[in-house]
Amino acid sequence: MIKAVILDMYGVILKDTGDSLLPYINETFPEKSFDDVYSYWNRCNVGELPSIEIFRGLGYEGDLEKIEKDYLNTIELNEDFPVFCEDMRGKTKLALISNDAAEWNRFLRNKYDLNKYFDVLHVSGELGIKKPDPDIFLLTLEKLGLKAEECVYVDDRRKNLYAAESLGMTPILFNTRNVDYDGIIIESFDDLKEYVLNN
């Protein structure tokens, strides 16, 4: 019996897979490369820098908080997620593990009123550790009070699924990226609900 569903944020709960930052930056600074942008992002992702420093460091001027908010407001919720949560109420615990800047994750969770759905929330920018580090999964299991074998882990990135699987969780690919995967693949929250209720 599945006692908890542990979910990734980008590419699962949110339509954005996390790959929209560079195109957004390139609208203003077309010369900026992936490495330019993600040298800042990777530090924010583990809490070493506040998220606003991405924009400051890349050369934005003016109201940086407005620029940051404008970017975050381009990120849309998968509208099937709240329905899934309501359908799962009382049937299984829900947890979030997200590689994200603490400020961005907080903004998006508040915007879409997501906090109410989760028994456990773990964000790399708050913890200083990120997937696929096993410690972030183990910490989540500890907070849930469950064994790995009692949980499924849902992500759109294979390396994170392999990490969860190595600990004993059942990994499920949410196929936002249309990648090959040799395990369980789902295309929607309806697919996930069916899997959880039948296993």
Tell me what the structure shows.
The protein is of the alpha/beta class. Helices cover 44% and strands 14% of the residues. It contains 10 helices and 6 strands; from the N terminus they run βαααααβαβααβαββα. The chain has a 6-stranded parallel β-sheet with strand order 3-2-1-4-5-6, with helices on both faces. Helix 9 links the parallel strand 4 and strand 5. Helix 2 (34-44) packs antiparallel against helix 3 and helix 5 (80-88) packs parallel to helix 10. The termini are close together. The mean pLDDT is 97.
Brief rundown of the structure:
The chain has 199 residues and is α/β, with parallel strands linked by helices.
Topology:
Elements lengths: L3 E4 L13 H8 L5 H11 L7 H7 L5 H9 L7 H9 L4 E6 L3 H10 L8 E4 H4 L6 H11 L6 E5 L2 H9 L3 E5 L9 E3 L2 H9 L2
Parallel strand pairs: 1-2, 1-4, 2-3, 4-5, 5-6
